[in-house]
Amino acid sequence: MSDAVIRMEGLGKVFRIGARHEGYKTLRDTLSNACTAPFRRIRTTLQGSRIQPSTDENTIWALKDLSCEVKRGEVVGIIGRNGAGKSTLLKILSRITEPTVGFAEIRGRVRSLLEVGTGFHQELTGRENVYLNGAILGMKKSETDRKFDEIVAFSEIEKFIDTPVKHYSSGMYLRLAFAVAAHLEPEILLVDEVLAVGDAAFRNKCVGKMGEVAQKGRTVIFVSHNMGVIQSLCNTGILLEDGKITFKGPTQQAVMKYLGSVEQLRTKPIETRQDRIGGNTFRFKRVHFLNPETMAPWRTLVSGQRVIVRLEYECLSSQTLEDVGIGIAFHTANNIHLFACRNRAVGVTLKVHPGEGYTDCIIPKWPLKAGRYSYHLYADRRDTPLDYVTDAGSLDVEANDYYGTGYLPAPGQPGVLIDYAWE
Amino acid sequence: MKVQETELRVPGLEAAAARRQAAPDIPPIRIEARQGWVSLKLREVWEYRELLFFLTWRNIQVRYKQTALGVTWAIIQPLFTMAVFSLFFGRLAKVPSDGIPYPIFAFAALVPWTFFSNGLSQSSNSLVGNSNLIKKVYFPRLTIPVSTVLSGVVDFMLAFVMVLGMMFYYRIVPTANVLWIPLLLLLALVTSLGVGLWLSALNVQYRDVQHAVPFLTQFWMFSTPIAYPSSLLSEPWRTLYALNPMVGVVEGFRWALLGTQPAPGAILIASSLVAVLILVGGAFYFRRMEKTFADVI
Lengths: 423, 297
Known about the structure:
The complex is a heterodimer. Chain A is of the alpha+beta class. Helix content of chain A is 27%, strand content 35%. In chain A, α4 crosses α5, α5 packs across α6 (170-182) and α6 (170-182) runs parallel beside α7 (200-215). Chain B is an all-alpha fold. Chain B starts with a helix and ends with a helix. β4 (101-106) of chain A pairs antiparallel with β1 (29-32) of chain B.
């Protein structure tokens, strides 16, 4: 494979869970560690086995045994759930962090774009930041000089180019930052989810620019949650699941596979679950998150969109059940309760007729931030449980501009968004 | 190249030719886990010299933004310390000053000292302060502490003008020895950067460094002949004392500017050797720790 510009072989990365969350150790920890290390070593030698990082319970493999080639001119979209290792892979390829095992070989000038506006300084003017950011992203000064007018024109903020960026609106800031990034001209470009910024019009402009880059025969590796963008830009898709490549091939197929795996989880048959309380006269069968316009399930749940939560059930009793209370409660992956929707709380009484049926809960603005959540289902009648299913299913929510202001909540922090005004 | 390929049919050569075709001048980058001590890759730092320039320039631009006194701070620091020293050490304690008026005696030492100690404390915090860059972009990490120390040179120049002003006031005529000043500044820079490299890399792992640095600089200041002359010590102790590289810098400055005697030959040799050792050791330690920066910072 002579035209492979990126080659990965057996690439793996271990994170120490402690190191990831605590961030740093104190000197005292290390000193005490250093003192006990010889004893530990003696013990492991006596036991005749060396502890491998993979068996250590404090470590996780963010990436495991990744082998793959990317050819010149290929535009690859990497898709996968949150935590599948997409960003770690990009960080390794951009040389920000090292793999633990295996290697990757890259031929050509690489530039990576893991964030727009890296290194922007609040106190400097737009003009100064363009040069600084350009240098940080690996542009030569002469190159920035040459493209300066083009960058400013692209950002549409000519008037404010000599104003310190701290006086910019967040939209202006992002425009300028992206404009610099869009004018990089490397042979290989690594991009992480940076198009999810700004207003819709500017976002389209950015996607258009990325398309141009892709068409100039450059190799692009692109991580995004936006399947639409992936499908329109990429000719190859890589599906990452739990740090492994589970599929590499035409984008369309990769996207289908990804959506399939997501869909599969969401429509897991609740009716077959044994670990429930009740379920004899009344049984939850399925939960759907529907798009109210098409009444079809949303492919991806996005903050701020209108969602109908459809709870399908079966009534096994021969009579109609009067005054049934039904609810769905959402919690984070760490099992922290966030909110619940129940018919009684909004003054609705439900009657359940024998046979199958459903009830809809309409959520005008989907309030969950990006992240992974699961939900409990419960139904009761006169304080006696009809059916309780804990962790009935889980769902992934993708980030979106909930407030319509271009503001994106900080990632990695699941939680709830609410509507409010500020005066 | 194509002709060669068909004629010779050597598999290795074919592959090599194809590789050359694929990337005409850039050798492939191999990304893998590095073990143990690694090379300094100074050539790469040189390739990123424009970034070094821009980071230095940014530090200079930003340092006195939104301050009322602006660059005056570069002069205020050593000036006020000099005033305090002159009063307590010069007037009250009657510390000897090699026959030179005490204020200029202290000030000529305080100016390089301020350069050194600011460079040291700022560079030791530089990696942590630029953690967003380290987590998001690749470039030789050495550029961060190097640019931090370099940006202090501007402050030094301003304070140095002040030194010249004071020499004029005290009617001290500079000699040709002034030409040594750039080299002495380099010595201060090497020391500052050397210690800064050690501390900045340590600071990524152990935030204890942040708390230790103010104490370290204070301790170091009193073990450097700023408020007093090193001539209080007799040989060979004086040369041994110069194992603290700042002894060489400070005594060098006094000799070059104020003409203190004797010329600090042995002192400068000892100080330079130690400074270079600290720098080289610091650079290797820094490079060794570099791979963990993005993960633990």
